[in-house]
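During the no-cost extension, the postdoctoral fellow (Dr. R.K.) reprocessed legacy sequence entries with the updated structure-token encoder. One reprocessed record is reproduced below for audit purposes.
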Amino acid sequence: MRVGRGKGLEAGAWLLSRVSVACAVTLTVCGWVAWTSREGTASRFGLLALGCLVTAAVAGRSGPDWRSVRPGDLLTAAILAACGGIAISTCVYVVVGFDGGLVGAFFESVAGVTTTATSVASDPEALGRGVLLWRAATQWLGGLGYLLLVVLVIPFLGLGDAPRRKVGAVAAGLIPGSKRARRLALTYGAAYSVLTLAGAVVFRIVGMGTFDAITYAATTISSGGFGNHAGSFGHFRDPAIEWAGAGGMLLAGMSMPLLVATFRGERSLLRSVELRAYLGIVVVSTLLVAGWRSTGNFDVDTVRSSAVAVTSMVSTTGHYAQSWGGWPESAQLVLLLLAGLGSMAGSVGGGFRIRRAMVVTRLVSRDVRKAIHPRRVVSVSVGEDVIGEELGSRIAGFQAMLLVVTSMTAFALAVAGADLLTSVSGAVSAVSTTGVGLGDLAPGRGGVGSLSWPGLLAIAAAAFVGRLEMYPVFGALVSAWVAVGRLARGVVARALAGLG
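Re-encoded structure tokens follow.
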């Protein structure tokens, strides 16, 4: 799909202005928190908020005519908005004096916007509450933006995982910027906010302080994984907090459209085949990991820490209760596979997606049966949805892009000096936006601090591409390649004409 340019830039500028306003409000709150905590960064947050308002005023002077915006323009707008958020966050970290330099500030910003649980800050508690709140807010806003992308933009373009008939029922006639689009955005934004508020209340009830409850809820429901403490949930040494964290991460991996439809009474939650598969994967994986760790002698603590690890990886959140670097290799392999598999379609989590895996599995089964009985007509379905050739081809294309990006990232990490286990797991966790992995990237190990700056940039690039569902970035690259080719042909043609 060709990525739009003119209208795409206008739509991107308009969207950037909204992102800037959201950042200005967030920075104002961060400044207030820094001031009440007697930190010296309050005035800096205020100046940054003012700069965001100026950016919003300049970028949002005139919005595009949404009726003339093409599907490709929306992809351009999504990329510009994500890049704008990363640029703003990088400026924030540089101005407030974030340790790590420009590369560290950029990496932390990418991890925030893409909701990836990896950080160059070895001791988050030393950052101050203002910066900690900003870190959590970038992941919460990044999760919200991604949610709107996967439930509104991607289906509108026909690039999602639903059959065309269902896409048409949801998105036919959906004009970006229209009342219907705004109503849907408000609906999902409200649901996302309610879940975050509920998570904060639960964390507060089970024993977290108010500040920790708010920030951990924001980074859990958004599948982000940033923590205020080096030990994540394990820092609190409280079983109730760990169980609450596992429940929040399980919720983050669920389909938001399914949750909204269930709340409205339009659909029964457990009628979803994908949800049943998701819950089954979590239960079975938890029992397997706990069993391998305890050699058959189950105890509550082992099951609980295993449940936290499993829900963390399958939802691609990245929070943890204890390091799994010393667990049996079979248990670690299960966690890595869960990170690659990912969460449900329509959730804020990342990864390949359970629905896509179900489609691929059924397509392979169909091909095997047709090889045995060539004349047999075999239909493929997932729940009530019949899987056609177009949808299968679309998912196969996504799978190919995922494998290419993961392989390139693993190679880049290996060239940057990482060992094989760290390279492979780092690539999988980066593309799925999980963040934590195996080897040096296991919780409690060296983390990304053990990587050189080329390795950091490789993980940041993979997380960015993975968070945008591949299509916008690959579409932009194809469009840029075509534009460069046309320019080169024009230059060559003029040179030949001059020689003649």
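The CA atoms of residues 32 and 42 lie 7 Å apart. The beta strands are 381-382, 385-386. The remaining legacy entries will be reprocessed before the final report is submitted.
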